[in-house]
Amino acid sequence: MARKRTGQLIYRPTIGFVARITIIRDGEKVRELVELGTHSRPAARAKLRRLLAGETAPEDAKKTETVAEAARRIVGQQGEDGMKTSKERLARLERYALPHVGNMTVDAVRPRHIRMVLEAAAEAGLSKQSVTHLRNDLGGVFGELWREETIGENPVKRVKLPSGLKKDKRPRVTPTDDEFASFMVCGGIAEELHLMALSSRCFGGQRTSDLHAWDWSHIDTDTFLSAKVYRPKTDDDENAVAVLEELVIPDMLRFPLMAWWTRWKKPDGENGPTSGPVFPIMNGPRAGQRQGKRSHARELRAGFWTAGVHRPLKGFEKAVERLKKAELRLRQLSEKGEGRPPYRAALKDLKAATAAAKALDAIQTDTPATRCLDFHSLRRSYNTALAKSGVNVQQAMALAGHRNPNTHVRYVQLAQFGPLEQPANALPRLPEKAEPLPLPTGTDDVSPGDPSENRTRVTGVRGRCPNR
Fold this sequence. Notes:
Blueprint: E1 8-12, E2 16-25, E3 28-35, H1 41-52, H2 67-80, H3 86-101, H4 111-123, H5 128-147, H6 177-185, H7 191-202, H8 208-213, E4 226-231, E5 243-248, H9 251-263, H10 297-306, H11 316-336, H12 340-358, H13 375-388, H14 393-400, H15 405-410
Antiparallel strand pairs: 1-2, 2-3, 4-5
Helix pairs in contact: 2-3, 2-5, 3-4, 3-5, 4-5, 7-9, 7-13, 11-12
C-alpha cells in the first residue's frame, strides 16, 4: 500500500511559503520545490492540499487565491475553531456571494463588488437581517485575509447596507399564561418539548441555542437550587464571547428538571449524569449527543395545536368543522376496512382540511399583523412578564442575557396583556379641595362661551393658579 503523500511546507522570508512535493515528470518521480505565492500559513496549507489532490497544477500554485477558495478555507477553519454557524455562513456565501465574486482573486475585490453582492441579495428578496448576516459573512472572510496580510484593506469595511431593505416589524405571537398552562398540562406532547418550553419561559428566557448548549455540568445537581445559563449568542457582535450566567432555579422547573436528570442515569445506574447535554438528540444513531443548530418551532406549534390553543381568524370555525368531518370520514373508512383508493382520498382531504384550519390560526401561521409562534415567542413572554412584574431594566437584562437596552426593549410586548394600569407614582398630585378661581375682570380676558363662576372644570379640580 502506497504511503499517503503529505508534502512539506518551507517558509522563505523573501518569497513566502514553498512546498516540497513529489511530482511525476517524464514517467519518473522527482522531488521539487513549488512556490505558493503567500506568506500565510493557513493559505499555504490549503494550497498544498490542493496540489496533493491534483486540483491545482504546480505551475498555477503561485496564483492568488480566488474568493471561493479563500471562503471555503477560512469558514472551514472557523468551524473547526468552534463557530456554531459556520455551515450556515458558508451556505449563504455560496448562494448569494460566490456566484458574483467567487472566481475573482481576493486582491481584485473592491468595495463596489461587495456593494453589488449586497444589492443583488436585496433584489432577491432577502430581509434586512439576512443581508446583514451576508455582510458579516463577507467581513469575516476578508477580515481574515487582511489579518493574514494577503490583502491590504478589508473592502467590506467601506460598504454600508443598501437602502430600502425590507424589515419585518410584525411582533411574534406570544402565548398568555393561560394558553401556556393549557399547553403544559396537555398529555399528548413529548416530555422533552414540555421541559424545553418551561425552561425557556421561566428560566432566563433561554433561546434555542441556549437550550442546546445547556449542560448538566452547568447545573447544581446536588441541590438543584441554581444553574448557569450558557449564552452562545450574547448580542449583535459576531465576535462576542459566550458567557455563563448563574440563576436561581424556580420551583416549577426544579422538580421536572430533577425527574429529567434521573432518567439519564450513569452506566452504573446511580444518579444522573454530571456532564453532557440537558436536551440531547432523542432518537437515531446520534441519540444522546448534543443537538446542532436546528429549530423546534414546528414541534412547538404542533403542541399548541394538540392542546387546543388557538388564536382564531375569520373563517376558523368553518375550517374546523370541515376538519372534524374529514377526521370522522377517515376513521369510518379505517373501521370498515375500505380499499386503498378511498382511504388515500380521505387522507388527502384530511391534510388539506388541516392546512386550511391552521392557515386561519394566528398561532400556526403568519398574518398581516403578527408572526406565528416559535420558541423565541417564549423568550418574549419571559421578558414581557419581567417588565409587567416591575423588575427594573438592569435586572431584567441580566436575567434575560441582554447587553443592549435597545435589543431588550424590542422583546417587551405589554400590549398583549390588555389595558395597562397607570402606576400611582407616575400620576400628578392634585389637591382634593381647591379655592374657586376668580373671574377675569376685563372683557378682553373673557373667552366666548365661558361658563359661570361656579363652573366645574372637566378635570374635577378647582383651584387658584399660583401665577395669577
